[in-house]
Design goal:
Layout: E1 4-8, H1 13-24, E2 28-33, E3 42-47, E4 52-53, E5 63-66, H2 79-101, E6 109-115, E7 127-128, H3 138-151, E8 159-165, E9 167-169, H4 175-184, E10 197-202, H5 203-215, E11 221-225, E12 228-231, H6 232-243, H7 254-261, H8 266-269, E13 273-274, H9 277-281, H10 291-299
Parallel strand pairs: 1-2, 1-5, 2-3, 5-6, 6-8, 7-13, 8-11, 9-10
Antiparallel strand pairs: 3-4, 10-12
C-alpha cells in the first residue's frame, strides 16, 4: 500500500475532504498548488503558466492525485474563462508529464480527476458506460482533451487511473448547497424540464474511490465516479422533504436559467444517466447509496 501521496489542486472541495480522509487512514499527504500554504500538510509550488515545478514535491511520493483545474461552475463563461477551464487542465497535466519524464522520482501511479461531462447531455434513457463515445459539446471536448493530456503519462510506464466525476454532493459547497439555497428560502423549484438526470455521488464515496484507485494496482484506465442517477425534479422534491419545506413553484425554464448564468446553464438544465457498474466490479462499495439518507446526513 502506498503511503505518500501528493495532491494537485488540493484546495478545492474534493481535495480538502480527500486530504482529511487520507490523513485519518495514516497516509503522509502533501499538496502542490499555486501558492505555498502553512498548515499540517506540506505544500509545494508549481506555476503551470511558466512551466515551473518544485521537484522537491516528488521526493518519496508513490502516488499523485491530480485534481488541478479551474472550477467549471465558479464563474460565468466567456471565451477567456472557457480557455482557462481547458488550459488549467491540459497544461497542468502536460507539466506533470514533462516533470515525471525526467525519471528521478519514485512515483508509480497517477490518479486523475475527469468528468462525466465527457458523455455530453441527453434527455433520453440512454445509459453511458466508460467505453461510450465522447459528445461534441464544449464540456465534452474539454474533458476529452483533459483525459488525453493525462493519458500521455502512461507512456512513462506509470499506472494511470481516471475518475469521471458526477454531481458531487457535499455540505461544504458545490451543486447541493446551491440547489438547497432556494428550497431553504421556500422558493425551491426544479430546473429546466425537471426530467433531466443527475448522476450523483456523495463526497465521501468519491474520496474513498480516489483512495481505492491509489491503493489498487489493478485499477487503470477510466472509471465513472457516480453512485446512481435521479431526475432534477425528484432530487429537488427530496431536498424539500429533508428540509421540511414546501415546493410550490413550477420548474424554472431553461431559457430563464440561461439569462441568469449564461452558457453554463447547460450544466444544470441538462444531464445524463451514467453507469457505476465498472467501479462496483472492482469491489468498491458505496457507503452513501441511499440518496434520502445522504441528503439527511449533508443538509440537516
Amino acid at each position: 500500500m502506498s503511503k505518500k501521496i501528493l495532491i494537485t489542486g488540493a484546495s478545492g472541495l474534493v481535495g480538502s475532504r480527500l486530504t482529511e480522509m487520507l490523513l485519518q487512514k495514516g497516509y503522509e499527504v502533501s499538496h502542490l498548488g499555486r501558492t505555498k500554504k502553512d498548515g499540517a500538510v506540506k505544500s509545494y509550488v508549481w506555476n503551470v503558466e511558466k512551466g515551473e515545478f518544485d521537484e522537491q514535491a516528488l521526493v518519496g511520493i508513490d502516488t499523485i492525485v491530480h485534481l488541478a483545474g479551474a472550477g467549471v461552475a465558479d464563474k460565468r463563461w466567456n471565451e477567456d474563462r472557457k480557455r482557462e477551464i481547458l488550459e488549467s487542465r491540459t497544461k497542468s497535466s502536460a507539466l506533470l508529464y514533462e516533470t515525471l519524464k525526467k525519471g528521478n522520482h519514485s512515483v508509480k501511479a497517477v490518479v486523475s480527476a475527469s468528468a462525466i461531462g465527457y458523455y455530453g447531455f441527453c434527455l433520453d434513457e440512454r445509459i453511458f458506460h466508460e467505453d461510450s463515445k465522447p459528445s461534441t459539446d464544449y464540456l465534452a471536448q474539454v474533458t476529452k482533451q483533459w483525459e488525453e493530456s493525462v493519458d500521455k503519462i502512461t507512456s512513462l510506464n506509470l499506472r494511470v487511473a481516471k475518475l469521471r466525476i458526477g454531481i458531487v454532493l457535499s455540505d461544504k459547497g458545490g451543486a447541493l448547497v446551491e440547489m438547497a439555497k432556494p428550497v431553504r428560502l421556500g422558493v425551491g423549484a426544479a430546473l429546466g424540464t425537471g426530467k433531466q438526470y443527475l448522476s450523483w455521488i456523495h463526497i465521501d464515496d468519491l474520496c474513498a474511490m480516489f483512495i481505492k484507485a491509489a491503493e489498487d494496482d489493478q485499477m487503470q484506465g477510466t472509471y465513472n465516479a457516480v453512485c446512481d442517477w435521479i431526475t432534477n425534479k425528484a432530487i429537488t422534491t427530496l431536498i424539500a422533504k429533508v428540509l421540511n419545506k414546501p415546493l410550490w413553484l413550477p420548474p424554472i425554464p431553461g431559457f430563464v436559467m440561461k439569462l441568469i448564468v449564461g452558457e453554463m446553464a447547460v450544466i444544470v438544465v441538462n444531464g445524463s444517466k451514467v453507469s457505476s457498474e465498472k467501479i462496483r466490479e472492482t469491489g468498491f462499495s458505496f457507503q452513501h447509496a441511499d440518496l434520502e439518507k445522504a441528503l439527511l446526513h449533508l443538509l440537516t
